[in-house]
Specification:
heterodimer; A: mainly alpha; ABC transporter involved in vitamin B12 uptake, BtuC; two-stranded antiparallel sheet; two-stranded antiparallel ribbon; 4 strands; about 70% helix; B: mainly alpha; 17 helices; 6 strands; globular
Chain lengths: ~350, ~400
Amino acid sequence: MTSTTARLRFATVPWRLPFGAAVVLVVAFFVILVGILSQADPSQNLTLVDALPQAQAQFINAITIGAIYALIALGYTMVYGIIELINFAHGEIFMCGSFVSWWLLTTLGFSGAINDPLLLLGVLVLAFFVSMLVMGVVGVVIERLAYRRLRNAPRLAPLITAIGVSFILQNIVFVVVSNSIVTTPQIIPNTQLAFGPISISLINLFVIVLAVALMVALQLFIGRTRLGRAMRSTAIDRDAAQLMGVDINTTIALTFFIGSALAGAAGVVQGLYFGITVFNIGFQAGLKAFTAAVLGGIGNTTGAALGGFVIGFLEVISSVWGQGRWSEAVVFGVLVLVLVFRPTGILGQQLADRA
Amino acid sequence: MSGRSQADVPAAGAGSGRGSRQVGPSWRVALGRLGEYFGRHQSLSIVLGLAVVAALLPQIILLPPFNGFGTQRDFVGGFADAGVFVLLAIGLNVVVGFAGLLDLGYAAFFAIGAYTYAYGASPFSGLDIPFWPMLLVGAIVASMFGVLLGAPTLRLRGDYLAIVTLGFGEIVPVVFLNSDKYTNGTNGIVGLSQPSLYGLFGISGYGFTNPWPYFLTVVAIIAVAFIFLYRLQDSRIGRAWVAIREDELAAASMGINTITTKLLAFSIGASTSGLAGVFYASKLSIVSPDQFGFTVSFTALAMVVLGGMGNIWGVAAGAFVVYEIQSQGLKQLGAFVQSLNVPTFALGPVSVNLGSIDFVNFQYLLYGLALVAMMLLRPEGLFPSRRRRSELHETPDEAAESNEELVQA
């Protein structure tokens, strides 16, 4: 219950982590495999050999979905780390990001896959750049208008404001853009790439590589740059940081910019991967991403990324086992359990002292 | 300090409750005495105040803009529905306003109350327990779930609690939706029994045509809840809630058991929600999972915030106003704008046709704007409790003092 639990933490990864992650991944793969085998129609006579590629596809699917959640979760965890606010509007930022890329791609006249690699690359860069920039700016504006004045108010006040902001964003998209599901052009061609026994489609590979690249870039930015150091010190002690010459307002605005830009990137990925978006995806996605952030220990960027992948696996596993309609309940059940039994998250305790 | 001295006197009761030793014209003294009397007899003033409200509200049909909107029956039916939200809001107010715990899954208890009634009095379960005992049962079941949810989670800090309750509020409808065998899934449970007075006042089954019995019933339930909550607010528990809200650590060191006290706030809030659920189910005669989504929780929260956290009458008024705006106001505003026949005009590249705007769609935009504006400009709500107002607005002297402290520091 101390207020020291929330700090932006960018600690080095303990050596146990890669080992543990490998074990977890292998276990997850087998859970998926057994799920596919047990849920298969008996008349199909699904053999283990047939099930393996399916399990592998679901495994990659889980990582991809997890990457989206991880990108959103990073924003939650950064904002929480620095001003201890659950930014309820963050899920809506993700939603708006998906609409920005939808708007851009349809305005440019794309409707399906782009087969020219150079053009594809250019369009992707443009889509991500525009969406991340727009959402980053939106995030900063929200912080300026809605949160800054409440920085020293009772804790309930900014939380309620955040809920209000999420209503506003969602309703604007609902009224101005569309009140139903819109189809986003899936511009990445549906090509299967084979790396030895593993086959992965281009879009999955792209999403995973992009997400990892963004996360590494974020980690380096926070860990190695002057601005990153300003963010860390603001998170630890705002007043002391100010005395040391850190511009608090700029630093917090920067945090919002980066977090929101990452959510904007996740929004683009949502459109590219699922091909649809709708005005109310932000709520669910935001809640799950927040679960991811809590799972990893809130304030901890490495943890948030890991938590995102855990949520991705939970979702895919529950749907593979034929319980897809329970996946939300599973995710929130996990959230409650984690908060009750290990509120510092899976990485929280280990890393707390090293931050 | 006795809690009674600061009791809010219902607006419909009498003038200001202060000034017992006021010297002045005799009518002022008399008014002061009257105020003091009602301040001392809260339950009586609540009953009287709500009776006046119940008598006056349906007469709104006689006033100019409202008489064009429908018959008195429509209005009374709408008021009965608004009463459900008043109950929800005053229950949530216990959790958010008194104890300062942000509960975002409040609709879950509403759903639990409604489904409890559905099990107690519907062809689905084969039982037909009368409405009145079911009210109590619904409240008890909901409060039990409040304890169940609260026990493991209330040690969490405020914002974590908000997320856990949000998750719980999402899980409960999902459970009702997916457990087809026990809840009839998406279709919900239909054919719930109506309340009945067994011939008292010539009313047996309430039926569907006449909204009056429902309206009066909900006012009666609200009155009971009001009395209960006012008593609680001024009791030892109520003071403990305020203490926890203001400083949990200090409260704990003063010997307050924070876990049980918070748990009590949770379960009492839940029980009021359960009452609302039972009444709502009996009025609609159907329960289905989609009635209890997170929008209900958030609407109730908006009502509490707008009304003024901590002030029971204020929250009730906020709930009523918000409900009426959402259910009637926006629709009528749309009709009114349409009737103006404003020609389509161009706003930059966009052509705007005011008549085609469906204002009901803007409901959540309005909630959002209201929540943000409220927190920034008037965090104590439209009808604040005296204590909250003094907390949130320092007097100029105090502000100057704290500024000085800052300068010195």
